[in-house]
Design a protein that fits this description.
There is one protein chain. This protein is mainly alpha-helical. The protein folds into two domains: 30 residues, no CATH class; 74 residues, no CATH class. The chain contains six helices and two strands; from the N terminus they run H-H-H-E-E-H-H-H. It has a two-stranded antiparallel sheet.
Length: 113
């Protein structure tokens, strides 16, 4: 729904009335909302795993603490979900992407590193 509002807003600009949505976003230097939400979830995961929030990580992201995990020490358990709503819940949607990143990404000193 919000994506539709962004789509209509890009069409309202006089110079973008006849171009497609992707071209309008590129010309305005904007990202699709789906990408922005996903990126935001990855940033929140980084903050949680590095202790930058004063909360218990296990409440949001179930960590796998197995010694034999390949890759890095910040592996999240993927929970079984029967509803699509739960699959897109914070933390579960980014689990696969987070798993394939190198350890240096999860343990970086800052987001800009």
């Amino acid at each position: 729904m919000v994506e539709n509002i962004q789509r209509r807003a890009t069409k309202q600009l006089p110079c973008r009335a006849n171009c497609c949505y992707k071209d309008g976003l590129k010309a305005l230097d904007l990202l699709r909302l789906m990408y922005r939400r996903f990126r935001g979830d990855l940033i929140e995961d980084y903050y949680l795993t590095n202790g930058l929030y004063n909360v218990n990580v296990e409440d949001y992201l179930p960590l796998r603490c197995e010694a034999g995990t390949k890759g890095h020490c910040y592996k999240f358990s993927k929970q079984a979900c029967r509803l699509d709503v739960r699959k897109n819940f914070f933390g579960l949607g980014v689990t696969n992407t987070w798993k394939i990143w190198p350890q240096s990404t999860g343990t970086a000193s800052s987001l800009n590193a």
